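To illustrate the input format used throughout this study, we show a single complete record. The first block contains the structure-token representation of the backbone; no residue identities are included at this stage. The design step must infer an amino acid for every position from geometry alone.
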């Protein structure tokens, strides 16, 4: 997902590593909460299962990030982002007004995954320690797979509507 030659400069300090990891932790929490919000709003059992499964993957990522943050002497952030909270609120508003179609929820999830993929790409441009880089790359690959799966499901849902 990243070009190793684009990484330059001195390795990050532990504090800077913790900052990068906390940014990822917040976006990962946003993803977990967003997937759970979508699971609450859809009626299809298969879509609920998909969203809950993606939320579980995010939870696993959170746990890995928390361990790394502690390993590097930091304190894990205790929340998500303001943008993530607004996004989840929008998902619930759509559900409340009856716009809780699978397509609508998939579109919302895809926007959230776009943000996650971008955050991971930004992190991978940093000169991270090897163990952190490996974990971030693995999670970035997972975020990209989530994005692609959600995008493909969204495209299929769009085709069914037309």
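Output of the design step:
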């Amino acid at each position: 997902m990243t070009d190793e030659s684009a990484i330059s400069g001195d390795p990050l300090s532990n504090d800077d590593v913790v900052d990068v990891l906390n940014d990822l932790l917040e976006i990962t929490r946003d993803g977990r909460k967003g997937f759970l919000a979508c699971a609450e709003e859809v009626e299809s059992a298969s879509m609920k299962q998909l969203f809950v499964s993606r939320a579980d993957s995010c939870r696993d990522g959170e746990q890995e990030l928390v361990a790394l943050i502690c390993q590097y002497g930091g304190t894990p952030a205790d929340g998500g982002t303001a943008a993530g909270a607004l996004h989840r609120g929008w998902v619930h508003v759509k559900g409340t007004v009856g716009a809780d179609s699978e397509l609508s929820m998939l579109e919302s999830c895809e926007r959230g995954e776009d943000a996650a993929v971008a955050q991971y790409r930004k992190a991978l441009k940093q000169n991270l320690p090897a163990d952190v880089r490996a974990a971030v790359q693995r999670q970035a690959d997972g975020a990209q797979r989530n994005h692609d799966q959600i995008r493909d499901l969204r495209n299929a849902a769009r085709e069914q509507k037309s």
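Structural context for interpreting the output: The chain has one domain: 8-161. The mean pLDDT is 83.
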